[in-house]
Amino acid sequence: MHILSEIIDKLLLWIEELGYFGIMIGLMIEIIPSEIVLAYGGYLVYQGHINFIGAVLFGTVGGVLAQLFIYWIGRYGGRPILERYGKYIFIHKKHIDVAESWFLKYGTGVIFSARFIPVARHAISIPAGMAKMKVGKFLLLTTLAVLPWSILFIALGRVLGEQWENIDEKAAPYIMPILLSAVALLIVYFLIKWMISGKKKGDA
């Protein structure tokens, strides 16, 4: 644990030195959780090293590019490649199974709502790539989900200041409503899709 802590500390110092680009690259490689990177970005805003808008912008770009990378792996590498090498980007078979099941059940709309749900969040880009979902639509839905996530954790990091490492405790009251909202949106999306499908069958 001590070695891991040292690695994280060095990565955070590296992010601080690079500023905006440090946040973006930190999210792209995702060696440490995105929540920590974003909260630390908020801490840098608190210190005055960077500004809030820039942190959100680069945080959003980094988060979207990370998912686009996974999308391309799914599109051109497929499930076998991901099952074999996914562990190196912290994606395991159970993540792929859940994400693929959700995508097949709910369709492309799940790309937005699944971003807020544990397990499916990081892996949902895989079935999108495998299904050759249109890149433009994928980027739009991913950006719409990553943006509020970036705003939340950067804002909390700024508010916490020197106590930014307590982000898990501070974010907890916000995460549950977001999670419930995401599930509710998913249910509404599914119902609308089911109703439209039923209407088309009735018109046929």
Descriptive overview:
With about 200 residues, this protein is mostly helical. It has one domain. Helix content is about 80%, strand content about 0%. It has eleven helices and no strands.
The unreliable regions are: none
Order of helices and strands: HHHHHHHHHHH
**CA distance, first residue to last residue:** 62 Å
* Count, helices: 11
> Average pLDDT across residues?
77
Which structural class do you get from the secondary structure elements?
A: mainly alpha
Using the CA coordinates, give the radius of gyration. Answer: 18 Å
Number of discrete domains: 1
Beta content: under 5%
Give a short account of the largest sheet: none
Ordered list of secondary-structure elements with their pairings:
Blueprint: H1 2-18, H2 20-29, H3 34-47, H4 52-76, H5 78-85, H6 93-106, H7 110-113, H8 120-123, H9 125-130, H10 135-160, H11 167-203
Give descriptors for this structure.
81% helix, 204 residues, 11 helices, mainly alpha
Précis, in short:
This protein is mostly helical and 204 residues long.
